[in-house]
Every structure is written in structure tokens, then in C-alpha cells.
Amino acid sequence: MIEAVILCEIGGAFGVLTGILGGNVVSILTDSPAVIPWNWVGIGLLSCSIVGFVFGVYPAWKASNLDPIEALRYE
């Protein structure tokens, strides 16, 4: 669970940094002030956590419902 959330958060932080850098480049090129909506940054990182949680729980839940003999037979 923690691994899935951390991996999603790393991707989300990389996306936020890329967006901030891209926005700053555009603001420099257009001579306009850069605005960083911090509430949207928080919403983006929260949604990354939710995605990591959901896609970390679902495979674990599905695997826990398997019969061990059936699961090992296909390996």
C-alpha cells in the first residue's frame, strides 16, 4: 500500500514541478506574471494518493481471494 501511494506521489510531484517550470517559461516568454494555484497543486497530489491507494488495494484484495494452490499452478 505504502509503495503504491509513494510511487504515485513521486509521479505527482514530478508533474507539479514540470507544470510549474513550464508555466514559468511561458510567463517569461509572454512577459506576464506566473501564478501558481496552490489549491490545485494540493488537489492534484491528493488525487495521486487516492489513485495509488485504489490501485494498490485492488490487486491485493483480488490476490487474497485466490486459492493458493490455484495461484501457484500457473507460475
Can you characterise this structure?
By secondary structure, the chain is an all-alpha fold. The chain has one domain (2-73). It has three helices and no strands. The protein has helices at 2-30, 38-64, 68-73. α1 (2-30) packs antiparallel against α2. The longest helix is centred in the first third of the chain and has 29 residues, at 2-30. It is rod-shaped, with a radius of gyration of 19 Å. The relative contact order is 0.16.
User: Gap between N and C termini, in Å?
Assistant: 24 Å
**What is the helix/strand order?**
HHH
Question: What level of helicity do the residues show?
Answer: over 70%
**Uncertain regions spanning at least 5 consecutive residues:** none
- Estimate the strand proportion: under 5%
Could you say which overall geometry the principal axes of the C-alpha atoms support?
rod-shaped
The total count of strands amounts to 0
By secondary-structure content and strand pairing, the structural class works out as: mainly alpha
Count every helix, treating DSSP H or I runs of 4 or more residues as helices: 3
Evaluate the radius of gyration: 19 Å
Mean pLDDT: 90
Q: Summarize the main sheet.
A: none
Give a short synopsis of this structure.
This protein is mainly α and 75 residues long.
Task: Considering the chains and any ligands shown, give keywords for the structure.
0% strand; rod-shaped; single chain; mainly alpha; 83% helix; 75 residues
What's the structural blueprint in terms of helices and strands?
Layout: H1 2-30, H2 38-64, H3 68-73
Helix pairs in contact: 1-2
